[in-house]
Structure formats: structure tokens, C-alpha cells
Amino acid sequence: MSCCCCCSTDLNCWLDIESYRRTSYAEEKIRDEKARDIQTKYLNKKYFFGPNSPAGKITQAKVISMAGGWGKLLDATVPPATLLEAQKYVRHRLENKWLPLFLATSRFAERQRPETGLDNITEDLLIQKRKKSQALYKLLDSKWVSSSKDILTFRKALVNPVTSLQFRRFVSMKGDLLENDVLFWQEIQKYKELCHLHSDRTLIQQKTMVIISCFIDSPIPPGLQVDITPDMAERILERKMEATPYLFREAQLTVFRVLFTHWPDFGTFRSDLTKETVLPTVERNRQHVLRQKHKATEVDEEEEDIGLELSDLDVKDSLVSWTYSQYIEALDKEEALNKPPEEETVEETPDKPVVPVKKGGCNVSPGKDMVA
């Protein structure tokens, strides 16, 4: 069985079980027919219990046990829990094997390009003409205040795939998170549309978790990838299980205000360009800015390395001079200790003659006892 056929079978199996799961319990007859159809098409040795199964041997045995044994699996109607368990393994292979392969194809890359339809191009040209005919900002109380028309114009530009791509590339030169702000705003719009269409609650919660993991609590640092406050992000994380269209309302308004400040600059930038040259010019400028940032980073790193080397040299010089002085001092002490003592010279004086002393008619000489 080819890879394409396996992927198609996995996808059809997941869709059929999902259709069964969404069927109301009141329509018991329809549910039973879908369950038997799924059982016949997928729960057999050609697919789920075969060599190309999305489940391993242990998980296959678990599904058989949930169905009540192989005999009941072939004859009786499969319980809903068994179908949902099988769907879980099918979905796991779709997400971990087939989806990455699809994202790497040229077909997917082609789908990511903006739809440059005539309607979108016409709307983009109307936006440019409207911007030239009216001022985007008005001075009021020493602050720039936007009108409702300007806000609606900017909102339409974010929804328009042509204008939004140009604007997203343009603001990427102005800040590290501004491009993420545009994508964040667009994803919240899609989330709100799901809520307003009363889509399945599980699907809405999955969309919520995708937005949170990409922009608010990203596994890639920094965790907060958009221009909102940490307190705002914390409130969203606390309410992430609420499937309401107002979950991201405050965050969406915040990034909208941040992006709106760059809208006049973008209008000025592309006013002198044709629609065919806007995106190439933006890309050239963007690459130039990235190169400048890269060079600035390299210069900072080189200066830091030079500073570290100089500080190391200063430390080494101080260590050498201190060691040398101690060494000289030790030599002086050693020389002083090893030097022999100088011999003292005593001058010999000639003996003086002893002069006798007369006392009482007696001669007294020194050194002899005197007798009275």
C-alpha cells in the first residue's frame, strides 16, 4: 500500500468517525448505519488490524478488548467508545506523520501565497486612493486621534491578503514582534468566526490552544510572542477553556492599536511605488535591515571579546608585578639571613704603670687588702 493511499485512508477514517461522533443521539438509526459502515470499511485486517495500521499490536488488542472480543467486533455493532479509541490513533498518525510531510510540499507553499484576485487588488487600490484623499490622523488635544473611517480602512487592510502581506513585511523592519502581531490579529479573527458559526466546542478549544502555544505561551523563548502585557496573557491562560468569542478581545485590541501607529508610515512608503514593486521593495529593505542588525551584533560581540581580553591582560600584569616584587623581597631577606656576621676589632691599650698611693705612711697598691 503506497504512502498516498495510507494517508487518504487515514483521513477518510478520521472524517467518517468524526461524522459519526457529531451525529445526534436522537438519530439512532443513522448512527447505527454509520457505525456499521465504519466497522466494515476500517475495523478489519486490511486496515486497522493489518500491517499498515495506525496502531501498534498492544493498542490493537486494547481496541479489540473494548469491543468485547474479536467475535463481537465482527458480528455485533461496535460501541461508540471503541470507535473513538480507534479515531485517536488515526489522528495521532495524521498529525505526526502525514501532516509534516504535507507541510514540506510545494503544494502547501503555493497555498500560502496571497490570493491576488481581481477583487483583492481592486480593494487594495481603493484603500490607497482613499488614503491620499483624506488625512489619517487629526490633531486633538495635542494627541493624534483616528477617525472611525481610518479604523475601518485599516481593518479591511488587515483582512485583505494582498495588503496584509505587504504591511506585515513592512512592520517586520520596525520591531521584532510586529509581524507576529499581524498574524495574531488574523488568527483571532478566524477564531471569532468559528465561535459565531457555532462550530464544535472541541474544534474551538483546539484553535484556542494553537493560538496560545504560538503567540502567548510559546515553547520557543520568549514565551510571549506578541505586544501584550504579561498580565493580559495570564488572564487568557486562566480562561483558556472558555470557548467564547471574547476570550482574546482585549489582546486583539491591544495589538491593533500597536499596529495602527505604523499604518500612516506604510501608506507613505508605498504611495510612490506601483503595486508590483511594493513587495519586492519591502523585501529588499527588510534584508538590508537584517544585515545591519547582524553586523551591529557582530561588532558588539567583538567589542565585548576585546574588553574581556584587555581585562584578562590587566589581571595577568598585576599578578606578574606582584609576584616579582615578592620574589625580590624574598631574595633580599634570604641574602640578609645568609650573610656571615662581621668580626669585632678590639684595640689593645698599653698597661699603665701602677702608682703607689701613700696613706698614713703605708704604701697601698691596688689589688691588695689593706690592713689597718
Automatic annotation (TrEMBL):
CDD domains: RGS_RGS22_4. One of its GO terms (molecular function) is G-protein alpha-subunit binding. Residues 335-372 are annotated as: Disordered. One of its GO terms (cellular component) is nucleus. It holds the Pfam family RGS. SUPFAM superfamilies: Regulator of G-protein signaling, RGS. PANTHER family: REGULATOR OF G-PROTEIN SIGNALING 22 (PTHR46583). This is RGS domain-containing protein. It comes from Ridgeia piscesae.
